Amino acid sequence: IAAEKGEYRHFMQKEIHEQVRSLTDTLAGRVNFDEGKVRLPHLNLTPEKALRIKQVILTACGTASYAAQVGEVLIERIARIPAKTVIASELRYNDPIIDENTVVLAISQSGETADTLAAMDECRKRGATLWSIVNAIGSQAMRVADGYISMQAGPEIGVASTKAFTAPLVDLYILAVLLADLRGVITPEQRRKLVSDLRLVPDLVGRCLDREAGVIQVAREMKYIHNMLYLGRGINMPIAFEGALKLKEISYIHAEGYAAGEMKHGPIALVDRDMPVLAIAPRDPWYEKMISQIEQARARGGGVIVVATDGDERVAALADHVFWIPETPWMLSPVVTVIPLQLFAYHIASLKGLDVDQPRNLAKSVTVE
Ligand code: G6P
Predict the structure, then answer these.
(1) Distance between Cα 363 and ligand 1 center (Å)
(2) Is 61 in the pocket of ligand 1 (CB under 6 A)?
(3) pTM for the full model?
(4) Is 264 a catalytic residue?
(5) Of 131, 193, 136, 125, which is closest to residue 167 (Cα–Cα)?
(6) pLDDT one-digit tens code per residue, 252-262
(7) Ligand 1 pocket, 110 CB below 6 A?
(8) What is the pLDDT of residues 90-108, one digit of tens each?
């Protein structure tokens, strides 16, 4: 097993670094940059089928459910189809309102998570069209679906999911563009721009990985903290949830992900010197709102780490530490903003000497309810 990790200490670190490759593979065969078009052959979509869709319900557990939340934003914004995420353990008992014009899209690395499979089953009985985005080829979630997208993450060993988080983010973006095109809600120019932005993704992620040393430095300083608040808005709100989850899972530090705009309705009461805040503030449509929330946290004495765009001195001036990311089209920014958060959680756990790949009480795939 040591050999398979190559130069890395843990599978998780190896898998974080594999993301340039996995995202390159995710684009291959699906994106035609010359024509500015995308394809997802295993969904068997036609304009007629795409036009019949009245709503998309995304369902998943854990990290995959945060990918789903990003997907919900992309499907609504790009394809203009009502979309919502319901975690699988809830959906199956929710008496969901579903008909034959509903698509239920399950996301799962393993394709064997019990709650996700049960939610699919329930929705099938109610007449939904079932799609899945799955990493493990031939798994149940792939077999029972009417159509699927095969994640190109490659085998993931570390219990805390990393490359099987970013791959579906790109799959969901491609899906949103495809639906928008088939439904005729974007112009050819808009489509070409959305498609050409995809070309940047592997390189942007690679540039974040090149900055690992900066993240390690912050991890060294922060490794003894007991609490942390992650804040994000809009398309990066689920990245706050995912960043906090990564820290909890492998470093056993209490971390909460929160919608930044909700901070004033509760969590601000907790912010003091012992409760650092990590704010995700790329130059996306929610940027100005994030700035004011960072100012509020700072005014209460909380240490602030920000994820910010290269050259953004305004936000850097408000922070104790900055995880710099390259300028990224905002609809793809979650793929990039999550990278320093994966590295941060990994290095805190690794500096503490914890069992990063096999954290206590957790399983890679939860096949019981
Ligand atoms: C477990 C794993 C998580 C994963 C979740 C969903 O809790 O530890 O990393 O996100 O299951 O798994 P799935 O295979 O359905 O993506």
Answers:
(1) 8
(2) yes
(3) 0.97
(4) no
(5) 136
(6) 999 999 999 99
(7) yes
(8) 999 999 999 999 999 999 9
